[in-house]
Write a structure and sequence with these properties.
This protein is α/β, with parallel strands linked by helices. It has helices at about 5-20, 40-50, 60-70, 90-95, 105-115, 145-155, 175-180, 185-190, 210-215, 225; strands at about 30-35, 55, 80, 100-105, 125-130, 140, 160-165, 200, 220. Helix 4 (about 90-95) crosses helix 5. Bound molecules: pyridoxal-5'-phosphate.
Amino acid sequence: MINIKNNIQLLREKIIFFEKKYARPSRSVFLLAVSKKQSVEKILQAIEANQFAFGENYLQEALTKIHFFKKNYPHIPIEWHFIGKIQQNKTRKIAEHFSWVHSVDQEKIAQRLNDQRPEGLPPLNICLEVNLNHESTKSGVDISEVESFIDFCVNLPNLRCRGLMALPAQIQDFEKQRAIFHPLEPLVKKFKSKINTFDTLSIGTSQDWEAAIAEGATIIRIGTSIFDDRKI
Ligand SMILES: *Cc1c(COP(=O)(O)O)cnc(C)c1O
């Protein structure tokens, strides 16, 4: 039987170990638990390990879970991150129910999220998804387009432009994983000097998170290493 609480505790210990190993500041890497296709029971087990940030890819599934926790556990301060592909007609619900969106890759999506963010909520934290030419999908903007995209987003008052995200296709070789992530950290640093909210590099999954930490990740997005196989 898998022990989710244990998996998270072990992962946290390893994160601290790799922060030291790669000369990263202590506590600079934040763990996002990717709960797509995992049940609310499994999410509750993660919460027992004081894990409160969850990443979801599929809007309908996510909304069901968000409503479940709002109704049954209103006192638990869960932070929901949308990390999946964004369809234009789904932006309103995303703007209403999430704290973060990692997978923004079109200006018109950013504009819609801004316009649809409800009054009274803090600005929506967004990351721009970058395509490193190693992706298995077509999502993400080219590195050459990052600057103009950020110039566009910083002027949207209901968004907080937090950083960059990438999801390269899975490969096994550690040095190759590092090489693929490598262009991102200098880019984050460059914009950080101009935009004070820009502090995030969201890279690394169960397959490549050590390489991601070595290359400057501030959020790693871990699913299967915490929850095991995806079912629902
Ligand atoms: C599913 C997913 C992850 C987590 O992948 P695991 O291999 O399960 O750790 C991270 N990021 C994104 C965007 C995902 O879709």
